[in-house]
Each structure stands twice: as C-alpha cells, then as structure tokens.
Amino acid sequence: MPLIDPTRTLLLVIDLQIRLMPAIAASADVLANTGRLTAAARLLDVPVLVTEQNAGGLGTTVPELAPEPGRAFPKMSFGAARAPGFLDRLPRGRDLVVTGCEAHICVLQTVVGLLEAGCRVYVVGDAVGSRRAENREAALGRMAAHGAEIVTTEMVVFEWLGTARHPRFREVVKLIK
C-alpha cells in the first residue's frame, strides 16, 4: 500500500454547497477538515478540483472553499465520473484524495466510478458527510469494500509532507493544530 504522494495527487472536493451544508450532520467538521486539506494542497502544489451538483438548486460551493469563478465542475449526475468531460479534467496518473457530500450519494457514486476507471482513490473519512450518520458510515464501508482507502485529514497532510524537514512543514502543521 503506497503512501499518498503529493506529486501524484489531486484533491477532489465534491458538492460542498451553500444550500446542502446546513442539512449535513457534523457539517462544521466536514468543512473544517476540507478547508485544512485545500489549504495544505495550495501550500504543497497539489491541484484541487471542486464539483457542484445542480448548482441552480443547491447553490454554489460554500464561500470559504469556493474555487475561482467558473472553475467548479458543474454536474447533474450524482457520480461525477459519469458527467461528460469530468474524467478528461483529471490529470493522467494522479491518485485522488476525495472529500465532500453526500457520502452515500455523490461521493459514493463518484468514487465507484473513479475506481472503475482505474484510479487509486483515498476517501477522507473525517471530511465527508451525509444528512444522517448511518448513511455516512454505510458509504465509507461500501467504498472501502470496492477498493477505496479510507484515510483521515491528518494522514493525508502528513503523508503529503513526508518529513519534518519539508520546507513548508511549519506552515502546514499550523493548519492541523
């Protein structure tokens, strides 16, 4: 089992949208951990891709995680891998670190589609959410059974760093503490 290499990783943030987040159990934790990951990704030059499910109905990505205008990938299918052009947006050979909502719908269907496409997928368990905790837990179990690795925010960040001698170590560790 390889460690998560920042030079081969893309952070995929799925559907953390304005009208959806108030209904998500422990949404503050999901948003905080995704925020830590996106900040670490910026510091470590890991590309980030954000999706938005039916933005007309669910709103755009929450402001604190919103990409530059026009940079979110719009979709109507629950699984992003089914959306026209999505797989083309993924750089070849990149592993995917996945956060987002809802774990048992859009995250699950996206992860299964990515696995079917031959991608290595790491789902950040403390950065995915659903309206109900039992749906989140069932989704994590199912994704793992299909071959996704379930990890935590800190696992990802420290694997991206690799060493306490990393030139950005102090900046990145501040995101965790």
TrEMBL record:
SUPFAM superfamilies: Isochorismatase-like hydrolases. Gene3D superfamilies: Isochorismatase-like. It holds the Pfam family Isochorismatase. Residues 9-154 form the Isochorismatase-like domain. Coiled coil: none annotated. This is Isochorismatase family protein.
